[in-house]
Design brief:
Helices cover about 40% and strands about 30% of the residues. It has about 140 residues and is α+β, with helices and mostly antiparallel strands. The two termini are about 15 Å apart. The protein is globular, with a radius of gyration of 19 Å.
């Protein structure tokens, strides 16, 4: 593990904004502001790197859908086969008689992952969908 030197810096902000931030970090269980700020900065960097479209990313597409929707499962499978190079694994869960949850583990550049995600999430019968990404290194 790398031994990185810590650097302190100051941040000025409106008192009400800081109070809201402190409440959120307390509710989430952070021990201090520094831990929360580090996580926010890491996420900011991931989002920036993903937008340049050259970084390889790993992630997951979460889909919540009604499996009784006419032809939905076939459409989902057809789309996924078109992106077989980006899909590492899928997990399918039966939530209740009508609804399923599918988790699709993906890797690749952001434009490919976003395109795949958009095609799946916008299908009729998908009730909720989200793409979450992380850098590979």
């Amino acid at each position: 593990m790398e031994n990185n030197k810590l650097t302190r810096f100051g941040v000025s902000m409106d008192e009400k904004l800081l109070e809201s931030f402190d409440q959120i970090i307390h509710n989430k269980g952070y021990q201090n502001r520094s831990e929360a700020v580090r996580d926010l900065i890491r996420d900011f960097i991931v989002q920036h790197k993903s937008s340049n479209n050259t970084e390889n990313l790993a992630g997951a597409i979460l889909l919540f859908y009604n499996h009784h929707q006419n032809n939905l499962v076939n459409e989902m499978m057809s789309i996924q086969h078109g992106y077989h190079d980006n899909i590492l694994a899928t997990t399918h869960l039966h939530i209740d008689h009508h609804n399923c949850l599918e988790l699709i583990v993906v890797k690749g550049i952001m434009s490919d992952l976003q395109e795949l995600s958009d095609k799946l999430i916008t299908l009729k019968g998908v009730l909720y969908g989200k793409l979450t990404i992380s850098p590979l290194a």
